[in-house]
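Reopening this ticket.

The earlier resolution said the output was attached, but the attachment link was broken on my side. Pasting everything inline this time so it's all in one place.
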Amino acid sequence: MKSLLVTGTILACLAACSVNSELIRGEGTIKYIPVEGGFYGIVTPDGRRYDPVNLDPAFQQDALEVRFSGRVLKDRASFHMWGAVFEIQSISKRNE
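Inline output:
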């Protein structure tokens, strides 16, 4: 019984890990969104919107152009209801 529980837990963890998408790399502009108390998102030139869960305060500047990489967190929801929930792996100012 114990081994069945351990196996089930491992399978559940593996399933949750596979829910998140591939690494995304891109360029975009930080945008302040004045909804739900205000937050910062990333908008790409083609209009994709990312709602980062871990945007460093140093990058929380409206109209800041950035290069970024990270993953869409398909297993998470946000009360912002604006763009894909996104975990940043790296970010830098575009002019650097």
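Reporter confirms the inline version is readable. The first strand starts at residue 24 and ends at 33. The chain has one helix and five strands.
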